[in-house]
Write a structure and sequence with these properties.
With 378 residues, the protein is an alpha/beta fold. It has an eight-stranded parallel beta sheet. The longest helix is centred in the C-terminal third of the chain and has 27 residues. The radius of gyration is 21 Å and the shape is globular. The structure holds ligand 6OK and zinc ion.
């Protein structure tokens, strides 16, 4: 439905005629062995089997449904067989909600000094001890079966930005062959394997990648190769080209995104799932996320500010502590300061996706998006 239909708003003659933004936004339910979860959803990142500075109990309390861990990191340390012997990742980290593991496709290319990629897989040096390591679709899938996440990702190459057309084309074709190999190697029932759409920043490659992976019939689709430094309008254009080609009745997961303005735009194109280290990463250097933008609570301006970070926020930090107190802790290098800013940022994003879901259900998403973007300075 067109969100402007029925509104009495008369556009002044000179104002550019507003395109009735047909929205692809949707509210869904994701069924997993660890529960049924609401979308749109934000997934806190727990790279090394912990969401830094917060406990599973606190994650549950703030409404986290599915959290993300990284195969690359857990494969290098402590090893995925060890986690399997511990009873799997849920048991190991005492999390009974959903878990999604990324396949290593991004970390190999962004963390370890890359040695070389062949048809077989990716050889690289460990960022931990410099040892030579190798990941392939078969190794990455076996590692994720050991970890036992509810949703696992195909092994792919996250194409760097910018990339030549020819490189993007060859890499995307290889990622599709790797997706097929990931599918063949995946023998654990009850665990969903998502493919990952690539294609760089090229519309035609994005469409080919999406169509090829849809024909291989996966239960869900990640959209990769974005949030890698490209301008936001380019990311949105790639979404516009890709999302409509993905089956309506399957979840779409935009990897590595992000900030609230990106989330609300991506939801409009029909994205259901998000993950990003941003909220937890910036929290640790004293930046809080609010609906008006970022608040660097470490700044001197807040030394005597006895209000909470956000008076309308229901999180543990805002309900009990002032900006002055949190600033004091951060300045004194007190761990509790990092915990409070992390709790607030995670709560903020989890609550934001809940508000988007509510707006979609009440058919007022486009006005929600307008109001939010008007107030939020990037
Ligand atoms: N397997 C796979 N995983 C991915 C993870 C990603 N994560 C991103 N972006 C995250 C970028 C990102 C990194 C750090 C911060 C902290 C503040 O600066 C924020 C965003 N893009 C990504 C692309 C892929 C991808 O194609 N394949
Ligand atoms: Zn808060």
């Amino acid at each position: 439905t067109c969100a402007f239909a029925g509104q009495k708003k008369v556009l002044a003659a000179y104002e550019e005629a507003v395109k009735c933004g047909y929205s692809g936004a949707r509210a869904g339910r994701l069924h997993t062995p660890h529960g049924v979860f609401d979308t749109p959803m934000f997934m806190p990142v727990g790279t090394q089997a912990t969401v830094k500075a917060v406990s599973p109990r606190e994650l549950k309390e703030m409404g986290a449904q599915i959290i993300l861990s990284n195969t690359y990191h857990l494969y290098l340390r402590p090893g995925t067989e060890l986690v399997a012997e511990a009873g799997g990742l849920h048991r190991f980290m005492d999390w009974d909600g959903g878990i999604l593991t990324d396949s290593g496709g991004f970390q190999v290319f962004s963390l370890g000094p890359l040695r070389k990629i062949t048809e077989e897989g990716a050889a690289f040096r460990s960022h931990i001890d410099g040892s030579t390591q190798f990941l392939s679709p078969e190794i990455a899938i076996k590692a994720q079966m050991n970890l036992g996440a509810d949703i696992i990702m195909a092994f792919d190459e996250c194409i760097p930005y910018p990339a030549e057309y020819q490189y993007a084309k060859l890499s995307t074709e290889r990622t599709t062959r790797w997706a097929e190999r990931s599918q063949k190697a995946h023998t654990r029932s009850g665990q969903a394997l998502f493919a990952i759409v690539q294609g760089g920043m090229y519309q035609d490659l994005r469409r080919v990648s999406a169509n090829d992976l849809v024909s291989l019939d996966f239960p869900g689709y990640g959209i990769g190769g974005l949030s890698v430094g490209e301008p936001k309008p380019v990311m949105y254009e790639m979404l516009e080209q890709t999302v409509p080609l993905l089956p309506e009745n399957k979840p779409r997961y935009l990897m590595g995104v992000g900030t609230p303005d990106c989330l609300v735009e991506a939801v409009r194109y029909g994205i259901d799932m998000f993950d990003c280290v941003f909220p937890t990463r910036v929290a640790r250097n004293g930046t809080a996320m609010t609906k008006s933008g970022r608040l660097v609570v470490k700044n001197a301006a807040y030394a005597k500010d006895f209000l909470p970070i956000d008076e309308n926020c229901g999180c543990y930090a805002c309900q009990n502590f002032s900006r002055a107190y949190i600033r004091h802790l951060l300045k004194a290098d007190e761990i509790f300061g990092l915990r409070l800013t992390t709790i607030h940022n995670l709560y903020f994003l989890l609550d934001f996706t809940k508000k988007m879901r509510q707006a979609i259900l009440e058919d007022r998403f486009l006005s929600f998006r307008e109001e939010f973007l008007a107030q939020y300075c990037k």
